[in-house]
Design brief:
- This protein is an all-alpha fold.
- It has 2 domains: 48 residues, Arc Repressor Mutant, subunit A; 126 residues, Tetracycline Repressor, domain 2, CATH 1.10.357.10.
- Helices cover 69% and strands 0% of the residues.
- Helix 1 packs across helix 2, helix 4 packs parallel to helix 6 and helix 7 packs antiparallel against helix 8.
- The protein is globular, with a radius of gyration of 18 Å.
- It comes from Georgenia ruanii.
């Protein structure tokens, strides 16, 4: 019988907390079991293995990132608002942020759906530029690459110069805006 209160959703929640504490690479079922106060075999009643848990965490993280971006677009903040919300989310969830760049495999429809929903939001921010087809694909790739690169360098301590990181970020977003206008 499963321990009271332990469900697949609770295991994912605990996995998210472990990942944010120790990093994506440090996420193990043993660490989650310890956090849950159960023995490792107890987790197998709720998740198949560590890859199953990572996929579930990726789905949740993509859903949460999408939810964090939507209000900026609803407020009409466009690319700048989306970029700020993206950075804020990544800083708040440093251990599981790497899950958002994982591409879904053919046997991961939930991950594909969550990734697709996030891309729809990013596509929505590109609507202001009137981009379609290949230009839209390029724009989304450019924006995701720039944001991910900034997040990765920021998280890794790559911006230790005296200059304000926030100012650099705003200038990058301004440059992205200009680049997207040029694409249109």
């Amino acid at each position: 019988m499963p321990r009271a209160g332990l469900t697949p959703e609770r295991v994912v929640e605990l996995g998210c907390a472990v990942a944010d504490d120790v990093g994506w690479e440090g996420l193990t079922l043993a660490a989650v079991a310890q956090r849950a106060g159960v023995r490792l075999p107890s987790l197998y009643k709720h998740v198949g293995n560590v890859e199953d848990l990572r996929t579930r965490i990726a789905v949740r993280t993509l859903d949460e990132l999408r939810a964090a971006l939507v209000p900026a677009l609803e407020r009409g903040e466009g690319l700048a608002g989306l970029a700020r919300a993206y950075l804020t989310f990544a800083r708040a969830h440093p251990g599981r942020y790497p899950a958002v760049i994982r591409a879904a495999g053919p046997d991961e429809p939930e991950l594909a759906a969550a990734g697709g929903a996030l891309l729809e939001v990013i596509d929505g921010a590109m609507a202001a530029y009137g981009l379609e087809g290949d230009d839209l694909v390029d724009a989304v790739r450019i924006v995701r690459s720039a944001l991910h690169g900034f997040v990765a360098l920021d998280a890794g301590g790559g911006f230790r110069m005296a200059r304000d990181v926030g100012r650099t970020f705003e200038r990058m977003v301004t440059g992205l805006d200009a680049a997207l206008r040029a694409l249109a």
